[in-house]
Amino acid sequence: MPAGNSPVALSRASPLDRLALYFAGEPTRQGILARAALGRPAHGDAELARRWIERSGAELRSDGSARGTSVTTIWRAHEMLDLGASPDAAPLDRVLRWVLELQGRPGAFGEGCDRERHGRRLCEHFVLGFFAPAPPLQRLAPVTLPNGKIYRAESAARFASSCLALRAALRSGHRDRRVVRQHVTSLVCLADQWTTWTGYFSPDLIIAALHALAHAGPERGEVVERLSSLAAAHQDRDGLWPNADLFHVLDALLAAGTQAGLAAVRRAVPALAARQRPDGAFGTTAQQERALIALRAMRWAHEGQEPRRAPS
Which domains does the chain have, with CATH numbers? Predict the structure, then answer.
């Protein structure tokens, strides 16, 4: 529990106020972003963000990667972008170069071809531009995304990791890069097949694609609207989604910023509040990241205004 927040004060606060108290003294990326979202930045947050970026850059390997899996490095790019780092400036430029070099390497989702996959348009003849988060023979799964969602199947882990990398590429201004365009186009073509919540692609993979496409610019607005509406249509009456991670879905809907997404987020807020602990968090999994997602969702639901779309 952050210092200075008494258990009594936290237990008596509203869900949103509890989150404000939870993040009040946190010197983390999530704390900085939460205070900014609430319009209550701390006096030293700008300097704290600068030092965070500087320290993260100093921890990078010589090739620009971070210690851990490829997802760790991909997420490092997102963290730096969140805190205002310029894509052209070191150390973010080094991270992005490493991430972009994953395109075209062996090990990407969709490699190879057989009759079934070709018929489903899931082979290398149709799926282009994906990032290779690991070599073909190296086991990648299970992969845990920073929001706590776990992909246990190998193909799903590679698909979701590539969508996370695509988001970083799009957010950092690489939309016109040929292989990035191919990745976006491949997702749009795959999305034409996603008309149900229980098809060949799991809901959490559809959500991963939605989150990536939310950064692809206004020309992809139609598919973002359609996938947001698909998610909203399959929300249960209790505000949750069958076979999908609540925070993973909310994270993507926040990025998409559609009216269908807003309605779904509003329906999910009571379920969020019911899961909130007295200290403001939502369990031990990805604790601060999930608390930040919940805070943003509650703010959007309360304000009733479409949030700014994801940077493109």
Answer: 7-303 (1.50.10)
pLDDT digits (tens, 9 = 90+) for 139-152: 999 999 999 999 99
DSSP-derived secondary structure for 208-276: HHHHHHTTS-GGGHHHHHHHHHHHHHT--TTS--TTS-HHHHHHHHHHH--HHHHHHHHHHHHHHHHH-
Closest to 244 (Cα-Cα) out of 235, 256, 253: 235
CA–CA separation, 174 and 178 (whole Å): 9
pLDDT tens by residue, 36-90: 999 999 999 999 999 999 999 999 999 999 998 999 999 999 999 999 999 999 9
**H helix intervals, the chain:** 7-12, 15-23, 29-37, 45-58, 70-82, 92-100, 115-119, 154-171, 178-191, 203-213, 221-233, 246-256, 259-275, 287-303
